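Have a think about this chain, tokens included, and walk me through the fold.
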Amino acid sequence: MTQINFYESIAKAALNQYGLVDEQIQFLGHSENITFYVEAPAEKFLLRIHQSISPSQDNIWKQPDIIKSELLWLAALSKDTNVTVQEPIQNQQGEWVTQVLTDNTQDIFCCTLLRWIDGRISENRRTPQQAHQLGSIIAQLHQHSSQWELPHNFDRPIFDEKRLHRALEALYPALSDNLISTKHYQLLITATQNIETTIKKLGRMQNWGLIHADLHEGNYLFHNEKIRPIDFSHCGFGYYLYDMAQSIDHLFPQVRTSFFEGYQTIRNLPENYLQIIEGFSIMASIEVFAFHLNDPNEHEWLSNTVQYIAQNHIPKFLQGKSFLLDIV
């Protein structure tokens, strides 16, 4: 049995618990989760098996209570806002998370089912109008997060300085693999220390809450020119400005001002927001580097990108100079 066939057997076992039998399923991919497209006679779904492709990924993401909390937020967003998200489905036992026990290994896999939403991932450069809309969408998520009363036992990971340090430590083997120079790794350390100081000054009284934490260009769809955020599997507690940094990193500098303007149609930003977001941009990059270190196919990209950020972003950041709006 191939690995995909193995995952298909898990997916079908999970679907049985939703009353979906003999449905057409199609393997989509494997990154932070294993995903399948499910086509039923009257509706389409996305089935996820919560198993990351990266061995360095925290096991916390596979815990049922952690996964359930993500779905509770998705359900609330679907009910409370005009943002189109993938609505989660409970199984026949009324559970948000379906656990499948494999016969041969006795391993337990956590699975979830979401309603499919139509749309496409655009590989084109974002226009100022699209960046403006993206900023508005993230602000709407933050607005809901700031007002929503968390359910009992709601539990999601935290994006803070401890997580940043873990990512930096996980990246250390790249030195011995000659993917990162000692000089550039030291710059990452210095930047991390600076970011940690900023985090301590911010505290968690304001600009802190539940965030998507991974809303890059591959995690939102366009449908009739409207943006639909997907893949909330990385959501957790963190700074709203960190959430913005995760998204703005994937926009060209020419449209980043439009992104901020879109955000401020819904929520205000602090006076020094750009400097803080630039620090969180470097933090987000370090986490991405650590995630991709275990994938040999990403090593060339990782090496080149670390070098670029170490040479072009971190020196300006440490000098208190802006870099996110630079047009090269």
Q: What stands out?
A: The two ends are 50 Å apart (CA to CA). Strands lie at 24-30, 34-39, 44-49, 88-89, 98-101, 108-115, 208-211, 220-223, 226-229, 236-239. The longest strand covers residues 108-115. The chain has a mean pLDDT of 93.
